[in-house]
# Entry
Amino acid sequence: MRLRSPGLLLLLLGALQAADTREQEVRALVGSDVKLSCVFPESPTFDLDDLYVYWQIGAVGHPTTVTYYLSGNSSAGLEDNRYRDRAWLSPDSMKHGDFSLRLYNVTPLDEQKFSCLVFRKSLQLQKILDVVVTLHVAANYSVPVVLAPHGPSEDEELTFTCTSVNGYPKPNVYWINKTDNSVLPEGLQNSTVVLNARGLYDVVSVLRVSRTPSVNVGCCIENVLLHQNLTGLCQTAETFTTPEPGNTGSHTDVRRREHGMVLSTLAVLGVAVAVAVATGWVCRSRCPRGSPTRYPAAKPERTFPGASGCGGQGAGVHLTAPASEPLL
# Structure
């Protein structure tokens, strides 16, 4: 009789002597493909009609079928819906003792212990291979974004908010003092970690610190599974400087002062332009027309006797010439 039900087959095989179990651990990123290794230690050639190959997850006695191969019949649609079209065994590889599972498009729900069981009919259904592969799933968190207080405030505390999304597994959240890179006490922060629709974690952390003349903090997200700490990539640290005493006026007052300064500057510029225009007009009305380069400035006068003046007087004629030109 041919056994075609994987559930019935497991009940029958569970009573048989178990082979030594080998355990492995594998890490995979969300959305990637991963190979869960299950290889016979020697290198024989197998007849597929002599094999029962079974991959499952879950507790013993209540397994969930991932995929399976019955002699003469590959996966017959009894696998769990979560793994349908995502789990695959290679018949050609199984002929050479490689019963590894290829799992596509890894999700957070795939973080399980996967069991690989291989039996041979020719050996009275003896279990020849038992491998447990623990799959750890991870996803990178986004670079944390820190929102700092804006504008002057008379509050005694400053509130900073840090956000990072789409990571896995749950992170460790730290706030640090960027001045000396020291870790701030956990009592100053309140962190919330929630699962989103993709099965990944979103983090919101709120830090409250006392007001000081200068506050410079950073938010860091640590993914332990990936050995990754976003402290080095934390470009979101904000510097917030408290206002000086006597300079805590409202935004309206500041804008009014700025507006008054602009009007004063425009008024001064207007007066300067008017003075320049008036000076140019006076100069043009009094100065002779012509190019000053052709007529140099007048020099001291020289008097030549002997010329007749009006009324027969002996007054001289006054001629003026540039000092650099000879007089005739």
